[in-house]
Amino acid sequence: MTKRILKVAIGGFILAATGASVLAQDAMPGNLTPQGQNPKGLHVFIWAGLKSHGEGAHDYPQFLADWSKLLTQHGAVVQGALRAPSAADLEGTDVVVLYKGDAGYLTDSEKSVLSAYVKRGGGFVSLHDSLCGPDPAWFASITGGAKKHGETNFSQGELHYTVVDKDNPIVKDMTDMTIADESFFSITWASNPGVHALVTTVIPGGSHKDEVVPQMWTYEHTVPGGQPARAFVWMQGHNYTSFSNPQIQPTLLRGIAWAAKKSADELIPLYVPPAGIRGGRGGSGRGRGAAPAAAQ
């Protein structure tokens, strides 16, 4: 299969799976709002990657498909790609949602685009191992914390979540719970300012057994000469089923809205287009508001 055919095939898969206007390789102009979407919605760019790992794990393309649809249903205007966003992609974008393995491997050009976006105050959300790469200190300047590729810095098993800031609007409806996924440790943390932990877990095994490590946090910072920026990080998501956990899904919606400098509840209600502008085949058809289908 040639590169051109592969590009068309991937794009067709994403469009068919989402029912939303998201292309795998070529995102729409930031000023274009497709029919049926909220013209006043916050603008999200989903930065995903090609699938890695076995069945049901690290399903980045499925996330692009499912969450572009879910976020649209909740009033966001969504673009996305299986590559790093360009400067044109980020024009008008409120928040980048990153779910791609080892995304810390960036070219100088990609770093420059991302740095400029954060400097102007753009929001950022990192999920699972997206913040892994060769230079965790640099990536921690965006997300508040990152981990180095090639090190043993994860542990699998049952994780007990402890919500450490129950008054925070992002986790206001989350209770302490247990989730089967990966936890991370040996994090390179930003300082001055540091992160604000929302959820911690006790590492279940290995050399860091019993260490308490944040697994969900916020990071507010200002690049010198720039505008205040926000990042929200959730370190689980190895198992794709974790995204449809009834406590996790609304928490992620709140984290995305918060990182975009909106009310944390901005994306909680379903969006209902005013009468007369329900364009497109997606409309308000069956399954509206359903949780994304988990990988089997």
Can you walk through the features of this model?
- With 296 residues, the protein is an alpha/beta fold.
- It has one domain (3-259): 3-Layer(aba) Sandwich (Rossmann fold), CATH 3.40.50.
- Helices cover 21% and strands 24% of the residues.
- The chain is built from five helices and twelve strands.
- It has helices at 3-18, 60-73, 108-119, 136-143, 248-259; strands spanning 43-48, 77-81, 95-99, 123-127, 132-133, 145-148, 154-163, 177-184, 188-189, 196-202, 212-222, 228-234.
- A nine-stranded mixed β-sheet has the order 2-1-3-4-12-11-10-7-8, with helices on both faces. Strands 5-6-9 form a three-stranded mixed β-sheet, covered by helices on one side.
- Strand 5 (132-133), helix 4 and strand 6 form a beta-alpha-beta unit.
- Helix 1 runs parallel beside helix 2 (60-73).
- The longest helix is centred in the first third of the chain and has 16 residues, at 3-18.
Keywords summarizing the entry:
296 residues, alpha/beta, Rossmann fold, 9-stranded mixed β-sheet, 3-stranded mixed β-sheet, 5 helices, 12 strands, globular
Short description:
The radius of gyration is 18 Å and the shape is globular. Helix content is 21%, strand content 24%. Strands 2-1-3-4-12-11-10-7-8 form a nine-stranded mixed sheet, sandwiched between helices. The protein has a three-stranded mixed sheet with strand order 5-6-9, covered by helices on one side.
Layout of helices and strands, plus pairs?
Elements: H1 3-18, E1 43-48, H2 60-73, E2 77-81, E3 95-99, H3 108-119, E4 123-127, E5 132-133, H4 136-143, E6 145-148, E7 154-163, E8 177-184, E9 188-189, E10 196-202, E11 212-222, E12 228-234, H5 248-259
Parallel strand pairs: 1-2, 1-3, 3-4, 4-12, 5-6
Antiparallel strand pairs: 6-9, 7-8, 7-10, 10-11, 11-12
Helix pairs in contact: 1-2
